[in-house]
Task: inverse folding
């Protein structure tokens, strides 16, 4: 049997594969036995072990379960997250960590629903669209959807943050997925607005130049009341933690909330979209 020598220092994928081989051989299991336990093809497992194919979050969790190392320092999920964060936009991995601990979250979104409010079907439709355009692989699409679901856990923690959301009207008008997907997504917005710790508003097109922001932005207030902002372009993300830079953005966000229709008016507008008569 040919045994390909591994070079774990050559890439994160190779390091992951070398770790998989080490753990597998420690259990005296063949690749086929591991493949059977995690319900993947043996050819796929071979490609991951030799660094020819990138692992996914789903596979990593199944491997951890099979080897009994879920949550451990040497877990495959931990390695996957380290790999994934290395390929994310600059600032985004740090932002996710702060977002999960924030006392208050303020966000303004343009064009698509923000990740914290996306339904699984809406997130899947966006991800599959990116796959069809050749932007990401099917495996990366699964990872993207999983990451969104994990970020939304901040809304379900024991002491959830106050969350203020202002959506550009285009978020409501842009169809993503089937009509059923959009209807469920709009229903999700109404449910979100009804929570005791949230405020949802729609920045209508007729606000025109009264909008202080042209691009999406997120503002975080941490438990110690420190402030930070996060914004990104197609190429990079930027996390700003200097209060002197963030305070003007917070003032502008308050101005946006004052100019936008109230939550009651915004929810009524969303319901009109659901009826097909915005």
Result:
């Amino acid at each position: 049997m040919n045994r390909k020598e591994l070079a774990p220092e050559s890439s994160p994928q190779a390091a992951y594969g070398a770790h998989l081989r080490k753990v597998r051989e420690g259990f005296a299991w063949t690749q086929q036995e591991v493949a059977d336990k995690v319900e993947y093809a043996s050819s796929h497992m071979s490609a991951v072990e030799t660094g020819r194919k990138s692992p996914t979050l789903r596979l990593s969790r199944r491997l951890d379960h099979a080897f009994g190392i879920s949550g451990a320092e040497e877990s495959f999920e931990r390695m996957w997250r380290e790999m994934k964060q290395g390929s994310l936009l600059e600032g985004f991995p740090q932002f996710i960590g702060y977002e999960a601990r924030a006392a208050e979250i303020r966000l303004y979104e343009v064009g698509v629903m923000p990740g914290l409010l996306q339904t699984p079907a809406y997130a899947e439709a966006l991800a599959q669209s990116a796959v069809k355009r050749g932007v990401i692989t099917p495996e990366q699409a699964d990872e993207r959807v999983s990451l969104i679901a994990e970020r939304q856990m901040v809304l379900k923690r024991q002491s959830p943050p106050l969350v203020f959301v202002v959506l550009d009207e285009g978020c409501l008008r842009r169809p993503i997925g089937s009509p059923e997907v959009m209807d469920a997504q709009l229903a999700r917005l109404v449910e979100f607005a009804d929570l005791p710790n949230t405020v949802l508003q729609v920045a209508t097109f007729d606000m025109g130049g009264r909008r202080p922001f042209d691009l999406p932005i997120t503002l975080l207030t941490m438990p110690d009341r420190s402030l930070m902002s996060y914004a990104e372009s197609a190429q990079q993300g930027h996390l700003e933690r200097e209060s002197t830079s963030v305070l003007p953005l917070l003032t502008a966000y308050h101005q946006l909330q004052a100019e936008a229709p109230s939550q009651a008016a915004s929810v009524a507008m969303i319901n009109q979209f659901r009826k097909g008569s915005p």
Remarks:
- The first strand starts at residue 104 and ends at 109.
- The chain has a mean pLDDT of 89.
